[in-house]
Structure prediction request, 228 residues.
Amino acid sequence: MPAEKDYGRIFFPGNPWPKGHKIIKCDWSARIERATGLWFDFHIESESYSAADKRKDLPDDEDEDLSPTASHTLWDNYDSLTLSTTRWVGTAYGFQAGDRALPFNFKKLSGQQFEIDTPPVMEGYPRPFAIYRWGHEEVAYQTLKFRKEPKKSTFSIDWQGRIGGFIDNKPDFPYPFHMKLKGVTFQGIIFSAGTDRHQAYDLATPYVEHASRYKFRNRKDHTALVPG
Prediction:
């Protein structure tokens, strides 16, 4: 069985694992929305929350006065994290990274910071991201900073946000997280299967700087433009 990939770690301040949890899946791509521009999509999964536990015979009972974040049992009940714009259809739409006024420039992405859903403006779905941490919740107040890794084509991403929901239609996001991603590959601008070369360039050109320099790829279930 192949070893799990390591895309960095996610930290939940105050939980039983101060060293965080390994990220074992990180898919990053873009898509074109005809009316608005280029949008980023992500799909992220962590290892099991308790994967780092050296002792498997953890006590069955724990202090009833523990906060939810500090409860080992609570985390174990939900196993692992998924943060995604693609996993649950219709629940998330990602975030915009290019439009007609300011086209997406891949070569200038390093150093850019994006603030998403700050503050959250509405309750319910769809939202920029969908999340499963202690079951299905909501995530907001997110900040992502991209850095190209030295002498590589991959990126590191410093990603912070807060988890919670709404109470009486007011945002209540008390649980922070901090993700330090590494070795993340941009998989390109994704188009539906059957989109040909000319259609892909026509769709991308208004929203992507130097779109003609991207390489067209015909993949198993979609086509893509990838930076040259």
